[in-house]
């Protein structure tokens, strides 16, 4: 589009104002002025459409429009002269009147000549393009009609699902407390914040996002604020971007029919312009699945707001602020369920109240689950309800409607993921419901079986969290460099876990990639026992039981198993004999959810785990690690959490470098009987990371710690009985991170600490008494130190050191306390 086109509309507008003034003032020019007003009134909408269309005109059209712009510019000068001419100068006024008549004829000729030709040409082009589009549409329609059958993923099936969502939205939330809270928060973003042009509603599938968006559009205050200029569009997984952009552009420009005909005049690419003040407009984009699609649908124009509704979390650079939809409270859940199951908002006297509440509890406040499961149980006998409860406990669909309307609809979110991320989501079914999953456990699994590194595994975790497929429970320090994965836990809504189980449990039991027990049981599934005559080809095996004795196990062969997860609740636990038949096992996770540490039996099975690389033990008595019993030559990572370790760390029989010749990471957390580390730990020359945290009785470290030349990370977090560090710590030439936070009785640091030439980061919150003058002198020699985390009361001492250490950043820590670790 040429530069002159932008001025044609401005000149015509200004000329129109002058002509109105002439019509009122000058009798000689009134007739010409009135005719010109009529012609220019007709031309202005066409000029403005060309101005904002973004379409490049042909050379001959551009030349004609340029000449017409010059004519209008001359007319504007003439109008100013007419208004400036005094009434007494009759001769001059007659000359100006003749010129006005000439201008009128020029404008009239353009309107009746070239402009009509332009219109005819446009009609011809539009007709030709329409014919072409109908030809293409006919071909696409023929293809799509073949995919209309259920299960083919066709557009009819998608439309039916969308209609079901709209039907779901029409129900609303019984009681409305949660809905009103969400409405108020979203309204504040939309009508109370002029600085937010794009806002969002974010939540798990089936949580009522569309319901909330519809209620926003119906709200009288919102409608009044936008003067009823609200457009609601469903984007979906496979959107027609051109059609959607045309509808939005037509709505903005007041030419809504354009959205249903063609998008010739829709600007290409991302539109961002300043129109000055205009009418307030709200466009709601529901069911958005892709950032790239969203960016094409956002028009950044003053007084124009976009409300994005999605299961996915988008960057704040695109969606400036979001409201996360909250799940229903217990009373709201019961009301919604009863409305679907009984046609009323409370439990009728004839129903089994305990059974109803148990089923409602399984829905965990998810509106879609409450409605679908409630409707599935309507008018069914009590025995059917009892069966449904058991199936829900096993993570199985209770009927075809439950499978199709809830699980299959929720599965859309998972099918949209790429293959590797989807596999990681399905792995979450390996862990019990309503329990926090240590991220370290997930990372270990994913690294070993999906051929990725820790950084990629963490990125997948963030992606799943952003897509509302899991929730992160973080320690305040998580996300910093050198932060540990075991400081993060993962939780997941039960319906999402049921979905992972539902997708994993398809097919023949012996051929499943994941062999999972959905709920804790007193014995192994009978389905497994019936198929022991064949090998199981599972890559991941997850068992969830109470106490297991030797006789409770049966022989199973797992030639392809790489991960074994043993979840149990008991005081004693006999390790499964079939571990011997897992020659490829790389990661073993043993987690006791009981109240006290469990005694592990049959620890001798470890002698055959030649490929085991990662071992996680939680809330168990760690057996004595005697040399002939256990030799895990490929073990790289050992984690002991909430364990009793004093027996296993007997220095008289323990030779760590012989048992773990390749150990690179050792984690000991919340082990309250750890008093001293075995001396042989100093001889594990492969060790790169040592984390001893929340061990409240640890009183000293081995004097020869300096022998660990490859050690890069040393965490001694929350060890209150530790009073000093050995001088040999200065010999840890590779150490990059040191955490001594909450070591409240640590009085000073050895002067040798100044020799840590590679130290980059140090965390020393809540141990302020160590900053003696001698310690400050030693710390000033740490030329590679880039970041220190400390308390406010000692920050001034570090500020003084900053003067001699220009690359140092001092971070003052906020007070933060948590007992989340107690909530297993």
Which outline best applies? Answer: extended
Q: What structural class do you assign from the helix and strand content? A: alpha/beta
Total of helices = 25
Count of DSSP strands: 24
Provide the low-confidence segments as ranges. 1-7, 51-55, 137-175, 258-264, 272-276
Mean pLDDT: 78
**Relative helix content:** 40-55%
The biggest beta sheet reads: 13 strands, parallel
Q: Radius of gyration from the CA trace? A: 36 Å
Strand percent estimate: 5-15%
Strand order of the largest sheet: 9-10-11-13-15-17-18-19-20-21-22-23-24
Kindly, what is the distance between the CA atoms of the first and last residues, rounded to a whole number of angstroms?
65 Å
Pfam family, one: LRR_14
InterPro entries: Apaf_helical, LRR_dom_sf, LRR_R13L4/SHOC2-like, NB-ARC, P-loop_NTPase, Powdery_mildew-R_dom, WH-like_DNA-bd_sf
Keywords: Plant defense, Repeat
Family: Belongs to the disease resistance NB-LRR family.
Structure overview:
The protein has 824 residues and is an alpha/beta fold. The chain has 25 helices and 24 strands. Helix 3 (59-84) runs antiparallel to helix 4 (90-112) and helix 7 packs across helix 8. The relative contact order is 0.04.
């Amino acid at each position: 589009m040429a530069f002159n086109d932008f001025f044609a509309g401005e000149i015509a507008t200004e000329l129109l104002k002058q002509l109105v003034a002439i019509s009122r003032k000058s009798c000689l020019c009134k007739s010409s002025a009135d005719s010109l007003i009529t012609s220019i009134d007709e031309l202005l909408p066409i000029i403005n459409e060309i101005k904002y269309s973004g379409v490049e005109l042909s050379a001959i059209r551009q030349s004609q429009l340029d000449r017409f712009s010059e004519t209008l510019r001359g007319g504007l000068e003439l109008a100013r002269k007419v208004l400036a001419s005094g009434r007494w100068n009759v001769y001059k006024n007659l000359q100006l009147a003749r010129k006005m008549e000439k201008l009128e004829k020029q404008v009239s000729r353009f309107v009746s000549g070239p402009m009509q030709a332009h219109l005819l040409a446009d009609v011809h082009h539009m007709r030709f393009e329409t014919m072409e589009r109908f030809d293409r549409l006919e071909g696409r329609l023929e293809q799509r009609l073949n995919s209309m059958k259920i299960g083919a993923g066709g557009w009819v099936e998608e439309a039916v699902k969308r209609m079901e969502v709209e039907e779901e939205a029409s129900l609303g939330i019984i009681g409305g407390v949660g809905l009103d809270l969400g409405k108020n928060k979203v309204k504040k973003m939309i009508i109370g914040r002029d600085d937010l042009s794009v806002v969002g509603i974010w939540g798990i599938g089936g949580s009522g996002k569309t319901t909330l968006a519809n209620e926003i559009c119906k709200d009288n205050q919102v409608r009044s604020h936008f003067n009823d200029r609200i457009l609601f569009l469903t984007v979906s997984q496979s959107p027609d971007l051109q059609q959607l952009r045309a509808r939005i552009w037509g709505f903005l420009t007041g030419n809504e029919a354009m959205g249903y005909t063609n998008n010739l005049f829709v600007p290409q690419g991302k539109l961002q312009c300043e129109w000055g003040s205009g009418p307030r407009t709200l466009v709601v984009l529901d069911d958005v699945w892709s950032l790239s699609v969203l960016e094409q649908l956002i028009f950044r124009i003053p007084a124009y707001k976009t409300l994005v509704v999605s299961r996915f979390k988008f960057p704040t650079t695109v969606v400036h602020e979001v409201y996360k939809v909250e799940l229903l409270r217990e009373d709201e859940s019961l009301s919604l369920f009863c409305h679907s199951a009984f046609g009323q908002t409370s439990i009728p006297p004839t129903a089994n109240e305990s059974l109803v509440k148990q089923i409602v509890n399984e829905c965990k406040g998810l509106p879609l689950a409450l409605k679908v499961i409630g409707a599935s149980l309507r008018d069914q006998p009590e025995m059917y309800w009892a069966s449904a409860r058991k199936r829900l406990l096993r993570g199985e669909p209770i009927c075809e409607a439950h499978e199709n309307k809830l699980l299959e609809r929720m599965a859309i979110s998972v099918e949209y993921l790429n293959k590797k991320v989807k596999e990681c989501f399905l792995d979450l079914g390996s862990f019990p419901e309503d329990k926090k999953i240590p991220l370290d456990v997930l990372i270990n699994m994913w690294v070993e079986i999906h051929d990725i590194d820790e950084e990629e595994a963490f990125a997948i975790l963030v992606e799943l969290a952003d897509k509302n497929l899991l929730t992160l429970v973080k320690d305040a320090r998580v996300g910093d460099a050198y932060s540990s994965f075991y400081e993060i836990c993962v939780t997941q809504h039960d319906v999402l876990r049921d979905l992972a189980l539902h997708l994993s449990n398809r097919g023949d039991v012996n051929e499943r990639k994941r062999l999972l027990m959905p709920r804790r049981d007193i014995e192994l599934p009978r389905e497994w026992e019936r198929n022991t005559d064949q090998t199981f080809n599972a890559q991941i095996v997850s068992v969830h039981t109470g106490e297991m004795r030797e006789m409770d196990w049966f022989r199973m062969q797992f030639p392809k198993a790489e991960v074994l997860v043993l979840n149990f609740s008991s005081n004693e636990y006999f390790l499964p004999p079939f571990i011997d038949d897992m020659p490829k096992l790389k990661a073993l996770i043993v987690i006791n959810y009981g109240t006290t540490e469990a005694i592990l039996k049959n620890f001798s099975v470890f002698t055959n785990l030649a490929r085991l690389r990662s071992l996680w033990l939680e809330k168990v008595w760690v057996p004595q690690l005697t040399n002939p019993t256990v030799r895990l030559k490929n073990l790289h990572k050992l984690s002991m959490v909430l364990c009793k370790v004093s027996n296993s760390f007997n220095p008289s029989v323990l030779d760590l470098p012989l048992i773990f010749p390749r150990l690179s990471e050792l984690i000991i957390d919340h082990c309250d009987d750890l008093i001293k580390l075995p001396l042989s730990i100093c001889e594990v020359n492969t060790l790169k990371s040592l984390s001893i945290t929340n061990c409240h009785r640890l009183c000293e470290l081995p004097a020869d710690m300096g022998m660990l030349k490859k050690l890069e990370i040393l965490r001694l977090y929350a060890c209150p009985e530790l009073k000093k560090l050995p001088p040999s710590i200065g010999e840890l030439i590779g150490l990059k991170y040191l955490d001594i936070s909450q070591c409240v009785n640590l009085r000073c640091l050895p002067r040798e600490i100044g020799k840590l030439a590679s130290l980059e980061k140090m965390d020393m919150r809540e141990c302020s008494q160590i900053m003696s003058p001698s310690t400050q002198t030693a710390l000033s020699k740490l030329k590679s130190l880039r970041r220190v985390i400390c308390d406010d009361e000692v920050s001034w001492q570090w500020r003084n050191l900053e003067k001699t250490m220009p690359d140092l950043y001092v971070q003052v820590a906020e007070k933060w306390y948590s007992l989340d670790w107690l909530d297993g």
